[in-house]
Amino acid sequence: MQATPSYILSGPKETTKIPNQTLGRLIFDCLKKRPHNDEINVNAYTGDALTAEKLLTSSVKLSIVFKKMGLGRGDVIAVICENCLNYFIPFAAAFYMGVTVNPLNSAYTVGELKSLLLISKPKLILCSEKSYKTVLEVAQDINITKANILFMEHNEYEKESEIQCFEELLESVTVNINDFEPEEYDISETALIMSSSGTTGHPKGVQLSHENIRSAILPFSNPNHGAYSSKDATVLVPPFYHLFGLLHEFCAVIIGIKVIIMDGFNPEVYLKAIQDYKATILNAVPPLVHFLARSPLVDEYDLSAVKDIVCGGAPLSSTVEKEFEDRFPKLKVRQLYGLTEASGMCVAIPRSCLPNKDGTAGVLIENVLAKIVDVETNKSVCSYKVGEICFKGPMVMKGYFSNPDATKNCFDEEGFLHTGDLGYYDEDGYFYVVDRIKELIKYKGFQVPPAELETLLLSHPAVKDCGVIGISDERAGQVPLAFVVPKEEAVVVEKELVDYVAERISVTKRLYGGVKFVKEIPKTPSGKILRRKLVDIHRGSN
Question: What sequence ranges are listed for the domain AMP-dependent synthetase/ligase (predicted)?
Fold first, then answer.
C-alpha cells in the first residue's frame, strides 16, 4: 500500500454487496428472506433463542406501538439494559421509523445516567430490572413519566413499579408482515447516539448515521478482514451498549452469523458455549485473550471449531499474545484498531495475509483514508514518522450530538477525524499505535476520563489535590491510578479513597491502580495537570 505525495493512505475499494440503504430497510429485507426458524441470538445460559421470525414480527409490532405512543422520525429512545434476547427488537423497530437509539450502560450511577440522558433527551426509555430504579430516579429530571418507560423483559418488579414490559403491548397488535413497509428517509440521518467521554470528563453523544453503520458492517463480510457468513457462530461477551458488541447484532441480522450472547463473563459458561455451539470466530478484548491463554479451565473444553480470533478495544500485551498462540498454534490473534467516532474498526490485520510484524494493528479496511500528522505542525508525515492518527471516510461520525464546538475541534480542514492517538505506518501500510495524546484511560476497551475521577476525589473531605493517570495492566490494558495530596492534619488511607470512589461510580471507572500519596501534583503555570510527570513518578517508584 502506497501513500499519495501528500502522505494520505487509502484502504481498498468496497467489494462486498450490502445495499446502500437505511438500517430499517436492510434489517427488514434480510429478516424477510431468512428461514423463520433461523436463530439470530442464543442465550448461553438457558439455550433460549431469538429466531428470525420472532425478531421480525416483534419489531414490526413494536414500531406500531411506538407510533401509537407518539414517536416519530427524528425522535430518540434510550435502551438501558444488559445483553438479552430482546435487546435488538427496539433497535429494529426504531430504524423502521427513522427513530434514533441511544444505548446506555445499565450499571451507570444516577449522576452518570442523568448527564447522558440530558444530552440525548429521549422520549422513551426501555430499561432492565437492574437499571429501572436508577432510571426512575433520573426520570423526573428529564421530564420522563412512567408511561414512557418500558421493561425490556418480564420481571418481578412490573406490578410494584407500574412499568409494563413492551412484550405485553405487542399482544394487542395484529399485523400482516406483507403489508408492512419501513419508512423511507436519507441514510445520512442519525441511527445511533453512542456514549463517549472527553478529557474534561464531560460525556458526549457520538452521532452515527445509517451510512456510518452500514460502512462499519462491510469489513465483517469482506474475505480479507471478517469473512463472516451464515455458517459462522460467535460467543459474545462485550456488552451491546458498546459499539464492539452492538455491531455483532447487526452482523447477526444482515450477514447471518449466529451470536451466542452472555450477560457478563462466566468462564465455564463461556467455554461450554464455544464447545457446544461450535463457535468459529471469537471476538475478544485483552482480558478475554488473557483468560484463554492462561486459564487451566480451557483444557477441559473442545475449542477446535474456532478458526479466527479478533482482539480490539485496547492494546494487547505481546506476552499474552505469544502465550495464546503457543497454546493455540493454529490460531493467530488478529488485532484491530478503531474508535467509536469512526464506527469501530478502521485498521485490522488481514485474515488472508497474516504478517510477521510484531505489534501492528493491521492495514486500512475498505473505504478508509488515513494520514499521520505531526502534532506540532499538523502537517502530514511519511512512513515511520510518529504523529497523530487521523481518519476520513463514510464510517466517520456525523459529529457530537448537540455539541458543535466539540465536533469542530476534532475535525481538521480536510475533513479528517483526529483520533488523539499517536502512531505511524511502515512501508507496507501497516499501522502501529504507540501512545495517546488524549488523557482518556482505556480500561478493558472502556473510556475512563481522569477528570471525572479527580472531581470525585476532590469531594472527599481529606483530599486537598489529586491527579489521575492510566497505568499499563496486562489484563485490562490500562487501569486508573490516583496521586493524592492529603489535607494538612487529615488522616486517610488508600483503601478509604478507593472505596469512596467505588461507591459513587460505575464499575469500569474505579481506581484499580490504587492510590499514591504525594506532596504535590505537578502542574503548568496555568494549573493544568502534567500527567506525563505523574507517569514518570510512577515509573520511578517501580
Answer: 42-401
